[in-house]
Amino acid sequence: MKLGNCFLEVVVKKFEYLEKNSKNNKSHWEYCNQYKVPYICVKSYNQKFDEIFYDITDLGWDLEKVSEKIKCFYKNYIEFFCIDEPFFYEQLFQDYFFNIYVYKEHTETIANQLFLYFNENADVFY
Asked: Is 60 left (phi over 0), alpha (psi -120 to 50) or beta?
């Protein structure tokens, strides 16, 4: 079951993802929890990279299946951009894959696409 176009439109217009230290962080999480949509949050890791965190634990999805899909994307991202930062590789050993690091210039695009990806593939994750 997809998340639903009406929910998707509301969330996209309101916020698909949020900066970690935003004063709206709590209300963003509550909104996502209430409407059963992925909670996606972004924070700066250092001058070059951001961390994208997502929480899908309340959606009833198979966390292992989601983790494997996102891990596959992440491995390709690392390879494609020839990233050799150790903290990128440390993420690959998590049991459940809820954090990814990305170049700052990719953050907004990837965070938005992650939300859309979850919506389009929600049926696969149950």
From this structure: left
